[in-house]
Amino acid sequence: MPRLPDPARARYNLEMTAAKSAAVDAERWPPPERAHILSQPDPWPHTRNHIAMFVLAVRRRDRREALGQIVRIIVAAPGSVSGRYPEGNTGRARVGLLDPMPIPPDLAALLRPVAP
Q1: What is the pTM of this model?
Q2: How far apart (Å, rounded) are the C-alpha atoms in residues 88 and 40?
Q3: What is the pLDDT of residue 116?
């Protein structure tokens, strides 16, 4: 089963914490988007990330985003297990479900496998 490298997992947790502690709505979306990029190779964090995005969308009363996250919650784990996910995709409903996007360099470095 796919697993995140430890540095990517640590950053994922930091980004998810940052999303919860953001003081204003405008600051709440970038951390889970970055966490999503990191979480894609691992089924549980990937699904957990979409659940968090769903909760945020519901709190903001963003119906379109919430519905988009429901679909993404359903396909997150199978996509991670099969390795069929769009790398770099931020996971938002306004982004195509299968559209790859550039990975920010700081996150790409964390996703590189660590040599044994």
Answers
A1: 0.92
A2: 9
A3: 58
